[in-house]
Specification:
Elements (H helix, E strand, L loop, with lengths): L36 H14 L2 H8 L5 H15 L6 H34 L11
Helix pairs in contact: 3-4
Length: 131
């Protein structure tokens, strides 16, 4: 039974069931409204792009590494498309990027360890507790 004042979408799902989305003025939900089809396609495209592995990886990495990631992604595309044929140069760029990531990672780990030590009030673990 529909709640009072709310109307369900007039469309049917692929499995034949009635769509349970809230209907707009045209009787369809956002996903099924013919009047909103272009907007739905645009939003779906953005949603799909944000689910890509590259975008998810960028969201997980520290913001300081995002430019390195973007640059390396560009270098990879340029190699693939034949814009960079000097592979030694590309290899050097990759090595420098790898070094930057290693330095940043070491610094971040040290920062996290320092924060944990401050929380526990210890500078180093008790050797007896490691057994």
């Amino acid at each position: 039974m529909e709640p009072e004042g709310k109307h369900l979408c007039n469309s049917k799902k692929v499995n034949g069931e009635t769509c349970k989305g809230n209907a707009g003025p045209d009787g369809f939900c956002f996903a099924h409204s013919p009047a909103l089809a272009s907007k739905h396609a645009e939003v779906s495209k953005i949603g799909g792009r944000n689910k890509s592995n590259a975008i998810r990886a960028q969201k997980l990495m520290p913001s300081r590494l995002v430019p390195v990631f973007v640059m390396m992604e560009g270098v990879l595309a340029d190699i693939y498309n034949g814009k960079i044929t000097d592979y030694k140069k590309a290899q050097t760029i990759a090595q420098v990027a790898r070094a930057l990531v290693a330095i940043f990672t070491a610094g971040e780990l040290e920062e996290r360890i320092r924060a944990l030590e401050e929380k526990t009030g210890k500078d180093h673990p008790n050797p007896a507790s490691l057994r």
